[in-house]
């Protein structure tokens, strides 16, 4: 069984009047895994997947 070491996501910004505007939410990396590029990778993956989804 694996261990979750990082988590994050994105949703439509409820305060913007544009469904194309998102808000990155709840990004967290376990302390012992920080400063290893995992958070940066996670943010980049969230942005990549969001851009790909919005183009459909």
From TrEMBL:
Residues 5-48 form the N-acetyltransferase domain. Transmembrane segments: none annotated. InterPro entries: Acyl_CoA_acyltransferase (IPR016181), GNAT_dom (IPR000182). Pfam families: Acetyltransf_7. One of its GO terms (molecular function) is acyltransferase activity, transferring groups other than amino-acyl groups. Keywords: Transferase. This is GNAT family N-acetyltransferase.
